[in-house]
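Could someone model inosinic acid with this protein?
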Amino acid sequence: MRAFDYAAEVISEDEIRSRVSELGNAISADYEGRNPVFVSVLTGSVLFSADLLRQVQVPGEIDFLALNRFGESGRISLSMDTSGPLFDRDVIIVEEIVDTGLTLNVLRQMMIDRGASSVATVGLLDKTRRRVTDVPIEYRGFEVGDEFLVGYGLDWEGLYRNLPSLWAILDIEAFVEDRLTLARDLF
Ligand code: IMP
Ligand code: MG
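Reply:
Sure, complex below.
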């Protein structure tokens, strides 16, 4: 795994690929004969959703929503809604990372309120130690520590979502000083 003073690769492309495939297989087995709708939470989960959906062997649909988050208060509102109704549907929420769990809690309740016939979550990364509210993650990729991560959809100030593997930021000052520091070393 590659490492610099200020950032280190923590999950490789290969590890992501094989875990995503396992998650896809588990979902395919559980949803056999059904037609779930995957609700991808923009923007971070786009890369994960695209890879996961290709590993799912039931006729899944995909829809998107986007959220506004207000600081640490946990207040969340929709900035973009799904394009189709979720009433009577088997909903699978796709999150790239669950941190405090506040976002996921609000989303799950929203799906239930809309009359989804079932709600499950697939989360690629789980920052278990930072959880402030208890929320189930039926399909979980990796448990991670509390470092700030970038890559594979996760950003720092909008950057680094397009890295194909996951990196932990070890020295945030280095990024603040030079936003492109990691890009310069990698690209
Ligand atoms: P929470 O579970 O409500 O605290 O929020 C989860 C959201 O916070 C994720 O969907 C990400 O957008 C963001 N987030 C949490 N941890 C990280 C990280 O390490 N890197 C990038 N974004 C993160
Ligand atoms: Mg997100």
